[in-house]
Give the backbone structure.
Amino acid sequence: MESTNRPYVVCHMLMTLDGKIDGACMSAACAKAYGQLRTTFDCQATIYGTTTMAGTYSDGLAPAELPVSETVWSHEDYVAPSDVRNFIVSVDPQGILGWNDKYIEKRGRPKAHVIEVLTGQVSGEYLAYLRKVDVSYVFAGKDRLDCTLLLGKLKALFHIDRLMLAGGGQMNWSFAQEDLIDELSIILAPTADGNREAASLFEKPAFLPERLPAVFHLKAVEKLDNDGLWLRYTLGK
């Protein structure tokens, strides 16, 4: 059942047999299936962690020294005007990502409006920087990300009903930590290289408390071309 006060959250990931979500051994064939199957979930927004955003979606990092703004912006949420209903939600607790535009356009994907997710660590200068390019932003925690608070704001302020969680591993675990993954979708590629440096599907950040292991219940299995599998789970409560 989908919640009325937060978006339904689907964690959709491409993973190797040794549990990795990046690295040289990722299967190109299964990556294609991953991209095609993501549309089946009909999500209005996709959320990524800071590392993923910096490497793929943002315009690098913000300038080391931001200009002093004539306007002092308080730590209040800002919803910028937008002509699209698709969103990229960028988790950026310290406010380090760089932006030249409030929209992201990737080949094969709909144009998306950027929502920066910040914490109380962010400076007023960074807020002025975001306002200059009209990037939306919300505050979700004082020192670290509060996923429950964030989801409530995405629903209330942007009317997002379905959200795709797409890594990295620490971001995935942050949502699992708070029992906020409604469905886990894994495209399992038949590859492995034992790379101990590659990111895993779930990685607990050091600042999060210990919890009992997350237990998932199998919902469906489908064999894909090129010996891949599509695994779907729900998170046990």
About this structure: The chain has two domains: 1-44+161-237, 47-159. Helices lie at 28-37, 50-57, 124-133, 147-158, 169-177. Residues 1-44+161-237 form a domain with the Dihydrofolate Reductase, subunit A fold (CATH 3.40.430.10).
